[in-house]
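Dear colleagues,

As part of the handover before I leave the project, I'm documenting each prediction I ran so the next person doesn't have to rerun anything. This entry is a single chain, and its sequence is reproduced below.
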Amino acid sequence: MTTREILRDRLRRAIDQPGRPSSDYDLNPCTILPEGRKLRAAAVLLPVSLEPRGARLYLTKRSSRLKHHPGQVAFPGGKLDPQDADVTAAALREASEEIGLPPASVEILGTLPNHETVTGFDVTPVIGLLTDTFEPIPEPGEVQEVFTVPLELVVTADRFSIERRRWRGDWRRFYTVPHGPYYIWGATARILRSLADRMPK
């Protein structure tokens, strides 16, 4: 098998692993969620590229001017629009808009279980393997920076730690997996931890 085929196989095996949806509340079991809450459907793309230095995952740093989650590390993605056929179409559209990734350059491998955020979104993580190299073009209104991290960093459970901070008067615990100057935490880190827990060695 080629290096690309091995990578594709590992990711597909991870996707095929059984598992339940995750949430921002996983590490905070005392949180009481309101009954009948309505979540907004959203999708994010986990774009993986195979480069001479190894497999890399593309991430973004959100603009500091945004109202929600300014300056945080995130996957390209967002809420489903009426014209989106499904979550995969939404993830590809958002990645095209936010980082200039052509949908035709992505081989979709599958999805991970959904993730519920504290901001009321039901997020479907879509995993895609890039078929071509591309030069990221950050959308200036939303994205401050596009960068990559080693895939092995974020699919190794031992690399994650748990931290806490005050949120709305209570202590909130969350996963974090920092890389250099980038502080990856919250929903992004939780989704990556979900992938790491499924990833074959």
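Residues 3-16 form the longest helix (14 residues). Helices lie at 3-16, 87-99, 151-154, 186-198.

All the best with the project,
I.
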